[in-house]
Amino acid sequence: MKTTLTEENYLKALFHLVDNEGKVTINELSKFLNVKMPSVNNMMKKFAEKSWVIYETYKPLRVTEKGRREAALVVRKHRLTEMFLVKKMNFGWENVHEIAEQLEHVHSQVFFDKMDEILDYPKFDPHGEPIPDKDGNIIAQDLQKLSNCEVGETVIFTSVTLSDDAFLSYLTERKLLLNTKIKIIKIESFDKSFTIEIEGKKEILSKKATEKILVKK
Protein backbone atom coordinates (compact mmCIF):
# COMPACT_ATOMS: atom_id res chain seq x y z
CA MET A 1 0.00 0.00 0.00
CA LYS A 2 1.30 3.45 -0.92
CA THR A 3 2.18 5.87 1.84
CA THR A 4 0.03 8.99 2.19
CA LEU A 5 1.38 12.53 2.02
CA THR A 6 0.87 12.92 5.78
CA GLU A 7 2.68 9.65 6.51
CA GLU A 8 5.61 10.74 4.36
CA ASN A 9 5.87 14.04 6.23
CA TYR A 10 5.98 12.12 9.53
CA LEU A 11 8.60 9.74 8.12
CA LYS A 12 10.77 12.64 7.04
CA ALA A 13 10.46 14.20 10.48
CA LEU A 14 11.57 10.91 12.06
CA PHE A 15 14.60 10.89 9.74
CA HIS A 16 15.66 14.36 10.87
CA LEU A 17 14.94 13.97 14.59
CA VAL A 18 16.04 10.44 15.47
CA ASP A 19 19.09 10.26 17.72
CA ASN A 20 22.07 7.91 17.48
CA GLU A 21 20.14 5.22 19.36
CA GLY A 22 17.20 5.37 16.95
CA LYS A 23 14.98 7.18 19.46
CA VAL A 24 12.71 10.22 19.23
CA THR A 25 9.95 11.53 21.50
CA ILE A 26 6.34 12.33 20.67
CA ASN A 27 6.94 15.85 21.97
CA GLU A 28 9.86 16.39 19.56
CA LEU A 29 7.71 15.27 16.64
CA SER A 30 4.84 17.48 17.78
CA LYS A 31 7.04 20.59 17.89
CA PHE A 32 8.86 19.81 14.64
CA LEU A 33 5.66 19.24 12.66
CA ASN A 34 3.57 21.81 14.57
CA VAL A 35 0.96 19.10 15.17
CA LYS A 36 -0.87 18.48 18.44
CA MET A 37 0.35 15.62 20.63
CA PRO A 38 -2.82 13.46 20.38
CA SER A 39 -2.58 13.52 16.57
CA VAL A 40 1.09 12.50 16.72
CA ASN A 41 0.22 9.69 19.15
CA ASN A 42 -2.47 8.37 16.82
CA MET A 43 -0.14 8.44 13.82
CA MET A 44 2.65 6.68 15.72
CA LYS A 45 0.25 3.91 16.71
CA LYS A 46 -0.43 3.42 12.99
CA PHE A 47 3.33 3.44 12.35
CA ALA A 48 3.73 0.76 15.02
CA GLU A 49 1.15 -1.39 13.20
CA LYS A 50 3.31 -1.08 10.07
CA SER A 51 6.43 -1.98 12.11
CA TRP A 52 8.03 1.39 11.36
CA VAL A 53 8.38 2.29 15.05
CA ILE A 54 8.17 0.57 18.43
CA TYR A 55 5.54 2.46 20.42
CA GLU A 56 5.28 2.25 24.20
CA THR A 57 3.25 4.67 26.30
CA TYR A 58 5.36 7.32 28.08
CA LYS A 59 8.57 6.11 26.43
CA PRO A 60 10.53 7.49 23.48
CA LEU A 61 9.69 5.94 20.13
CA ARG A 62 12.22 3.56 18.65
CA VAL A 63 12.49 3.70 14.88
CA THR A 64 12.88 0.23 13.39
CA GLU A 65 15.17 -0.63 10.49
CA LYS A 66 12.08 -0.87 8.28
CA GLY A 67 10.97 2.58 9.44
CA ARG A 68 14.43 4.04 8.92
CA ARG A 69 14.48 2.75 5.35
CA GLU A 70 11.01 4.12 4.58
CA ALA A 71 12.03 7.52 5.96
CA ALA A 72 15.29 7.52 4.01
CA LEU A 73 13.43 6.81 0.76
CA VAL A 74 11.23 9.88 1.26
CA VAL A 75 14.34 11.97 1.90
CA ARG A 76 15.95 10.44 -1.20
CA LYS A 77 13.12 11.76 -3.37
CA HIS A 78 13.39 15.22 -1.84
CA ARG A 79 17.15 15.53 -2.16
CA LEU A 80 17.30 14.10 -5.68
CA THR A 81 14.66 16.61 -6.75
CA GLU A 82 16.63 19.48 -5.23
CA MET A 83 19.75 18.34 -7.07
CA PHE A 84 17.87 18.04 -10.37
CA LEU A 85 16.43 21.54 -9.99
CA VAL A 86 19.88 23.02 -9.36
CA LYS A 87 21.95 21.01 -11.84
CA LYS A 88 19.51 20.62 -14.74
CA MET A 89 17.11 23.54 -14.36
CA ASN A 90 19.51 26.18 -12.99
CA PHE A 91 17.56 27.02 -9.86
CA GLY A 92 19.49 28.62 -7.00
CA TRP A 93 20.03 26.38 -3.98
CA GLU A 94 17.83 28.76 -2.00
CA ASN A 95 14.85 28.24 -4.35
CA VAL A 96 14.44 24.46 -4.48
CA HIS A 97 13.12 23.30 -1.10
CA GLU A 98 9.47 24.24 -1.59
CA ILE A 99 9.29 22.65 -5.06
CA ALA A 100 10.96 19.48 -3.77
CA GLU A 101 8.42 19.38 -0.91
CA GLN A 102 5.72 18.95 -3.53
CA LEU A 103 7.51 16.52 -5.85
CA GLU A 104 8.76 14.23 -3.06
CA HIS A 105 5.25 12.78 -2.78
CA VAL A 106 5.25 11.36 -6.33
CA HIS A 107 5.02 7.58 -5.90
CA SER A 108 6.84 6.46 -9.07
CA GLN A 109 10.18 4.94 -8.06
CA VAL A 110 11.22 4.66 -11.72
CA PHE A 111 10.77 8.44 -12.03
CA PHE A 112 13.32 9.10 -9.29
CA ASP A 113 15.64 6.33 -10.45
CA LYS A 114 15.70 8.00 -13.88
CA MET A 115 16.38 11.35 -12.25
CA ASP A 116 19.27 9.70 -10.36
CA GLU A 117 20.66 8.31 -13.62
CA ILE A 118 20.42 11.66 -15.43
CA LEU A 119 22.33 13.29 -12.58
CA ASP A 120 24.99 10.53 -12.75
CA TYR A 121 24.12 9.16 -9.31
CA PRO A 122 25.05 12.09 -7.02
CA LYS A 123 26.04 11.30 -3.45
CA PHE A 124 25.04 14.70 -2.03
CA ASP A 125 22.30 17.26 -2.60
CA PRO A 126 22.89 20.99 -3.33
CA HIS A 127 23.11 21.72 0.40
CA GLY A 128 25.79 19.08 1.02
CA GLU A 129 23.46 16.56 2.64
CA PRO A 130 23.90 12.91 1.60
CA ILE A 131 21.33 11.40 -0.75
CA PRO A 132 20.13 7.94 0.34
CA ASP A 133 20.47 5.27 -2.36
CA LYS A 134 17.50 3.27 -3.67
CA ASP A 135 17.88 0.84 -0.74
CA GLY A 136 17.77 3.63 1.82
CA ASN A 137 21.49 3.48 2.65
CA ILE A 138 23.19 6.75 3.41
CA ILE A 139 26.80 7.93 3.61
CA ALA A 140 27.95 8.76 7.14
CA GLN A 141 29.71 12.10 7.45
CA ASP A 142 32.08 13.27 10.17
CA LEU A 143 31.16 16.95 10.31
CA GLN A 144 31.01 19.57 13.01
CA LYS A 145 29.34 22.93 13.42
CA LEU A 146 31.45 25.96 12.52
CA SER A 147 30.50 27.34 15.93
CA ASN A 148 32.55 24.57 17.56
CA CYS A 149 35.75 25.50 15.72
CA GLU A 150 38.57 27.67 17.07
CA VAL A 151 40.49 30.75 16.02
CA GLY A 152 43.27 29.96 13.54
CA GLU A 153 41.60 26.86 12.10
CA THR A 154 40.94 26.52 8.39
CA VAL A 155 37.99 24.31 7.54
CA ILE A 156 35.92 23.41 4.49
CA PHE A 157 32.25 24.37 4.28
CA THR A 158 30.60 21.02 3.58
CA SER A 159 26.91 21.20 4.44
CA VAL A 160 24.14 23.11 6.17
CA THR A 161 21.75 21.92 8.84
CA LEU A 162 18.00 22.08 8.22
CA SER A 163 18.13 25.17 6.07
CA ASP A 164 15.65 27.81 5.08
CA ASP A 165 15.57 29.98 1.97
CA ALA A 166 16.50 33.16 3.85
CA PHE A 167 19.64 31.58 5.31
CA LEU A 168 20.76 30.18 1.95
CA SER A 169 20.26 33.63 0.37
CA TYR A 170 22.33 35.08 3.23
CA LEU A 171 25.17 32.68 2.38
CA THR A 172 24.90 33.32 -1.36
CA GLU A 173 25.17 37.09 -0.85
CA ARG A 174 28.45 36.50 1.00
CA LYS A 175 29.68 34.07 -1.66
CA LEU A 176 29.89 31.42 1.03
CA LEU A 177 29.18 28.29 -1.01
CA LEU A 178 29.86 24.60 -0.49
CA ASN A 179 33.51 23.51 -0.56
CA THR A 180 34.68 27.04 0.27
CA LYS A 181 37.68 27.19 2.61
CA ILE A 182 36.97 29.17 5.76
CA LYS A 183 39.72 30.58 7.95
CA ILE A 184 38.60 31.65 11.43
CA ILE A 185 40.19 34.99 12.27
CA LYS A 186 38.39 36.03 15.44
CA ILE A 187 35.56 34.94 17.77
CA GLU A 188 33.87 37.72 19.75
CA SER A 189 33.60 36.87 23.44
CA PHE A 190 30.44 38.99 23.77
CA ASP A 191 28.14 37.40 21.21
CA LYS A 192 30.27 34.55 19.78
CA SER A 193 30.10 36.02 16.28
CA PHE A 194 32.90 34.91 13.95
CA THR A 195 35.19 36.97 11.77
CA ILE A 196 36.19 34.67 8.92
CA GLU A 197 38.26 34.91 5.77
CA ILE A 198 37.05 33.39 2.49
CA GLU A 199 39.04 33.79 -0.71
CA GLY A 200 40.98 36.68 0.77
CA LYS A 201 37.88 38.56 1.93
CA LYS A 202 36.73 38.99 5.52
CA GLU A 203 33.13 38.42 6.63
CA ILE A 204 31.37 38.50 9.99
CA LEU A 205 28.96 35.67 10.78
CA SER A 206 26.49 35.63 13.66
CA LYS A 207 26.42 32.75 16.15
CA LYS A 208 23.08 31.72 14.64
CA ALA A 209 24.76 31.38 11.24
CA THR A 210 27.77 29.45 12.55
CA GLU A 211 25.40 26.99 14.25
CA LYS A 212 23.87 26.18 10.85
CA ILE A 213 27.12 25.74 8.91
CA LEU A 214 28.70 22.26 8.97
CA VAL A 215 32.39 21.90 8.17
CA LYS A 216 35.20 19.37 7.96
CA LYS A 217 38.87 19.89 8.67
TrEMBL record:
Q: Which InterPro entries does the UniProt record give?
A: DtxR_MntR_Metal-Reg, Fe-transptr_FeoA-like, Fe_dep_repressor, Fe_dep_repressor_sf, FeoA_core_dom, HTH_DTXR, Iron_dep_repressor, WH-like_DNA-bd_sf
Q: Which SUPFAM superfamilies match?
A: Iron-dependent repressor protein, dimerization domain, Winged helix' DNA-binding domain
Q: Does the keyword Cell membrane apply?
A: no
Keyword presence, Transcription: yes
Domain of life, per UniProt, equals: Bacteria
Give UniProt keywords alphabetically: Activator, Cytoplasm, DNA-binding, Manganese, Repressor, Transcription, Transcription regulation
Major location category of this protein: cytoplasm
Please give the Pfam families that the UniProt record associates with this protein: Fe_dep_repr_C, Fe_dep_repress, FeoA
State the compartments where it is located.
Answer: Cytoplasm
Q: Where do the HTH dtxR-type domain residues begin and end?
A: 1-64
PROSITE patterns annotated for this entry? HTH_DTXR
Function noted in UniProt: In the presence of manganese, represses expression of mntH and mntS. Up-regulates expression of mntP.
What subunit structure does UniProt give? Homodimer.
| Assigned protein family | Belongs to the DtxR/MntR family.
Q: What is this protein called?
A: Transcriptional regulator MntR
What species is given as this protein's source?
Chryseobacterium paridis
Q: What is the lineage of its organism?
A: Bacteria, Pseudomonadati, Bacteroidota, Flavobacteriia, Flavobacteriales
